[in-house]
């Protein structure tokens, strides 16, 4: 589950990580009230107004702006809330902004070259250990840094049975070129950040930039936080942080009915049982000259009701020109799946107006093929993988 910046910062702060303080606002009126409250709490007289959407690069897209008085807070909030924010990380249509974070300005005037660092905590899948990835080159695209100056990216791996040790946090501070108060602040920051990552069951923390203020404080100015869905049951207070306005509506609906669905850009819809077979099927579609429109794992029970739900979800995507059903019948026999496909198809009447190719393999595959072939429906059957690919190619041509 992805979080908004303001939610990520709330979690960080609750574990003692210093953050740029801010208050979320739903409209310009609330933004002004938030600014006033911030001034009372922090003494700040300048503010940054930051669009809250699930995408990075907001600064580049005009979603992060400095306000030097309350009138500017109001006019900037008015301008950002409701806008369609287009950043390098959104689609071409952009993302609608529903709320802004009004934050204290922490880039003090006169500080011409603020020190911005990059820091993330994530799992290194090769070693099976969490690592802290960090760089002196904060504030910009880490992908660009990785490409152009990879020697400026450092990593620190943490032994899960021991946890982070103080010398590791000191090494981070040292490699970032810090000394004195800033050095001590950074070691505290790193220890707290890593603890927050582990205790919140996150799968990604990305703090870009981490700022060293001109008075040597270290703080998180931005926060991209992804929580592990499978651990959410341990964090009842985080569950409400989900903002489905930020999620793909078809994916949300699929999740509600228990289908494992990921929307993609292609033209061939897939219905498959098992994640591994789903991946292989997507490769097959590409080889046949198509592009998968989705990843869809219907799971173990591919009965008529489930197949019908899957059909309806796939057909919501207007780009779909054909559907490939690829089911391995082990415990669920192929003939039952085939019957499910036929029943679902008949139930849906005219809703299906594109070619369907069904490949069933496993127990009773031959009976299943007969069932499909004799159904009188516009459904083509295949037994071999290649056969299915050829049929997809033929209907796309
Ligand atoms: P992103 O563009 O989505 O990554 O959003 P960030 O939260 O990283 O903000 C983008 C940029 O806005 C940062 O890299 C900073 O340069 C700038 N920024 C953020 N907070 C402040 C602030 O308090 N004062 C000023 N002047 N600039 C800020
Ligand atoms: Mn950022």
TrEMBL record:
Pathway: Carbohydrate metabolism; tricarboxylic acid cycle; succinate from succinyl-CoA (ligase route): step 1/1. Substrate binds at residues 273, 330-332. Binds 1 Mg(2+) ion per subunit. The keyword Metal-binding applies. GO terms for molecular function: succinate-CoA ligase (ADP-forming) activity. Its cofactor is Mg(2+). Keywords: ATP-binding, Ligase, Magnesium, Metal-binding, Nucleotide-binding, Tricarboxylic acid cycle. It catalyses: GTP + succinate + CoA = succinyl-CoA + GDP + phosphate; succinate + ATP + CoA = succinyl-CoA + ADP + phosphate. Pfam families: ATP-grasp_2, Ligase_CoA. It is an enzyme of class 6 (ligase). Its EC number is 6.2.1.5. ATP binds at residues 50, 57-59, 106, 116. The keyword S-adenosyl-L-methionine does not apply. InterPro entries: ATP-grasp_succ-CoA_synth-type, ATP_grasp_subdomain_1, Succ-CoA_synthase_bsu_CS, SUCC_ACL_C, Succ_CoA_ligase-like_bsu, Succinyl-CoA_synth-like. Residues 2-210 form the ATP-grasp fold succinyl-CoA synthetase-type domain. PROSITE patterns: SUCCINYL_COA_LIG_3 (PS01217). Mg(2+) binds at residues 208, 222. Residues 271-392 form the ATP-citrate synthase/succinyl-CoA ligase C-terminal domain. Heterotetramer of two alpha and two beta subunits. PANTHER family: SUCCINATE--COA LIGASE [GDP-FORMING] SUBUNIT BETA, MITOCHONDRIAL, SUCCINYL-COA SYNTHETASE BETA CHAIN. Belongs to the succinate/malate CoA ligase beta subunit family. HAMAP family: Succ_CoA_beta. Succinyl-CoA synthetase functions in the citric acid cycle (TCA), coupling the hydrolysis of succinyl-CoA to the synthesis of either ATP or GTP and thus represents the only step of substrate-level phosphorylation in the TCA. The beta subunit provides nucleotide specificity of the enzyme and binds the substrate succinate, while the binding sites for coenzyme A and phosphate are found in the alpha subunit. This is Succinate--CoA ligase [ADP-forming] subunit beta. It comes from Aquimarina celericrescens. The gene is sucC.
């Amino acid at each position: 589950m992805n979080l908004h910046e303001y939610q990520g910062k709330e979690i960080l702060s609750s574990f003692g990580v210093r953050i740029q303080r801010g208050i979320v606002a739903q409209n310009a009126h609330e933004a002004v009230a938030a600014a006033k409250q911030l001034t009372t709490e922090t003494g700040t007289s300048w503010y940054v107004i930051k669009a809250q959407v699930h995408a990075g690069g907001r600064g580049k897209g005009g979603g992060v702006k400095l306000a030097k008085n309350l009138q500017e807070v109001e006019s900037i909030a008015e301008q950002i809330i409701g806008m369609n924010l287009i950043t390098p990380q959104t689609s071409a249509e952009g993302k609608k902004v529903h709320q802004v974070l009004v934050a204290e300005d922490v880039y003090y005037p006169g500080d011409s070259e603020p020190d911005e660092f990059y820091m993330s905590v994530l799992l290194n899948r090769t070693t099976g250990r969490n690592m802290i990835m960090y760089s002196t080159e904060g504030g910009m695209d880490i992908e660009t840094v990785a490409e152009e100056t990879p020697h400026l990216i450092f990593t620190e791996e943490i032994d899960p049975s021991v946890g982070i040790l103080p010398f590791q946090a000191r090494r981070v501070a040292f490699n970032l070129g810090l000394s004195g108060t800033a050095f001590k602040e950074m070691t505290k920051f790193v220890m707290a950040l890593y603890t927050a990552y582990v205790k919140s069951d996150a799968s990604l923390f990305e703090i870009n930039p981490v700022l060293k203020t001109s008075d040597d404080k270290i703080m998180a100015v931005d926060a991209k936080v992804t929580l592990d869905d499978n651990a959410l049951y341990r964090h009842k207070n985080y569950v409400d942080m989900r903002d489905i306005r930020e999620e793909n509506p078809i994916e949300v609906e699929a999740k509600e009915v228990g289908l494992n669905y990921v929307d993609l850009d292609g033209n061939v819809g897939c219905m498959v049982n098992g994640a591994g077979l789903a991946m292989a099927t997507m490769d097959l579609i590409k080889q046949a000259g198509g592009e998968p429109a989705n990843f869809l794992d219907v799971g173990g029970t591919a009965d008529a009701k489930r197949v019908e739900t899957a059909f309806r979800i796939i057909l919501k995507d207007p780009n779909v020109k054909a559907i490939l059903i690829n089911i391995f019948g082990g415990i669920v026999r192929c003939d039952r799946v085939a019957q499910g496909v036929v029943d679902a198809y008949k139930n849906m009447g005219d809703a299906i107006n594109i070619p369907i190719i069904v490949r069933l393999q496993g127990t009773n595959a031959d009976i299943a093929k007969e069932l499909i072939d004799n159904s009188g429906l516009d459904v083509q059957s295949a037994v071999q993988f290649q056969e299915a690919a050829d049929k997809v190619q033929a209907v796309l041509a």
